[in-house]
Amino acid sequence: MTDTRIMLASGFQVEVDRWMDACFGAAIKDDQLERGDRFIEEALELVQTMSGFSAERALALVDYVFSRPVGEPFQEVGGVMVTLAALCNTANLDIHVAAVTELARVWTKIETIRAKQATKPKGSALPVAPNNAFPPDVQRLVIAARIVAFEDQSAEALRELDQASEAFADRVPWEDEPEGASS
């Protein structure tokens, strides 16, 4: 495990780069599209923890952002950092402690992360290849079920599976439920 004082002295971004090399190697580390996927995934997971932030809200923001002109990367990184710090302030989270803690945690999970990465399509952070043939509610349910079945049986993962299955509550009866009784 990396010593916190070393991370702060050498720079957090440098330490993340070192971890990416150790965990994935150059090809995955340098895949900007996949890094973008992972960034969006983590950002969505963060706002998902906050009351009132729904998938519909996130999708509306996607439409809004992509309807506007493309920004400049340097300025957008600054905006990400400023708004993340402001969000952390509203949630009473220490951004630096959270970052260093997470980096220390993932150093201990390299083999698990590599195994998970090996199951994903090349160049994608998604557990399955993007496919518009399946509606989002089906995709959400399948992903949540796979996570619970193969990776994480925590209360949080089970809660996500339960929420994902809610979309089907009135369409798929329980095995022992009389026909027509679901509503």
Q: How does the SSE layout of this entry go?
A:
Blueprint: H1 4-10, H2 12-23, H3 26-29, H4 32-48, H5 55-66, H6 73-90, H7 95-107, H8 110-118, H9 136-150, H10 155-166
Helix pairs in contact: 2-7, 9-10
In short:
The protein has 183 residues and is an all-alpha fold. The chain contains ten helices and no strands.
What does this protein structure show overall?
Helix 9 (136-150) runs antiparallel to helix 10 (155-166). The chain has ten helices and no strands. The mean pLDDT is 84. It is 65% helix and 0% strand. It has 183 residues and is an all-alpha fold.
Question: What labels describe this entry?
Answer:
183 residues; mainly alpha; 65% helix; globular
Structural class: mainly alpha
User: Helices and strands, in N-to-C order?
Assistant: HHHHHHHHHH
What's the assembly state of these chains? single chain
Number of helices: 10
Radius of gyration: 19 Å
Strand content: under 5%
